[in-house]
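Q: My labmate handed me this sequence with no annotations at all. I'd like to see what the chain might look like in three dimensions before we decide whether it's worth expressing. Could you predict it?
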Amino acid sequence: VQLQAFGGGLVQPGKSLRLSCAASGLTSDDYAIAWFRQAPGKEREGVSCISLNDGKTYYADSVKGRFTISSDNAKNTVYLQMNSQKPEDTANFYCATDEGRFSLWDRTYRYWGQGTLFTVSS
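A: Here is what I predict for the chain of 122 residues:
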């Protein structure tokens, strides 16, 4: 299983950005893909996850109402739409997956993509 995260960059406060995570090597649809972020000097934090099987989603309280996770199962790609960005959203974003998992606990997942840096600054 391999994951590739992309779409990071620099945005101004209040603007929007969408991250993508492309998965390959999945052996069934019984996977969830989760997004995590790690801000400078802070621990990694679970942001959101989505089940590829039934589309069930879950969000951390810190992003509810601003972030939306979605999936295109035909492309095995998950998206994270991030709106109303704040400087404190600046972080490296990672996507992760594993079969039969659905969690924002990072130790749940064996497979991780490389990080994509997202910076919110004026």
